[in-house]
Amino acid sequence: MNVSVTFRHIGSSDAIKKYVESKTAKLQKYLNNIIEAHITLSMERVEHKESGVAQIKLTAKNLVINGEEKSSDIYSAIDLLMEKVESQIKKHKEKSRRKDYEGENIAALQEDNGLSNIEIKEDYEKHPLDIKEAVQKLKRKNKDFIIFKDKASSKISFIFKGEDENVYLIAPDL
Length: 174
Prior knowledge:
Layout lengths: L1 E7 L5 H12 L8 E13 L2 E12 L2 E9 L2 H40 L17 H11 L3 E5 L6 E6 L5 E4 L4
Parallel strand pairs: 1-2
Antiparallel strand pairs: 2-3, 3-4, 5-6, 6-7
Helix pairs in contact: 1-2
């Protein structure tokens, strides 16, 4: 991982630089594919008070994290910034795990039921329809069913053709 530290309106210090590098190195236990981390440290004067500002741009494979924290002390600003970055990394990893888990569920369902292929489709009407419009689309598109949002009731509804060629409507209370 390449770590670069930039100082603005503050004297560069080896102690601060080493502190930042050690804190940034700890991020690798959460995310092992970090490519680059660019940290900018500065001092701001707001209402006659100086405050430390720490900013980061962390680049990893398929992920870029930006963050900024302010505190009365530059060291505490760095600590707050690293806590913020850790939480963002954890959120990203949790989202990735959920996506992987969903993929595993589909694979497990296929294996358990002996199904060779389960194809997920977003086969529904995106705009609200009247029941008459839904029946017309069902007949026009020559489909077995249509999932749609009913204009009148705002319910998700399901229209399908029965074996007797009659059209049936299901509008559950969800």
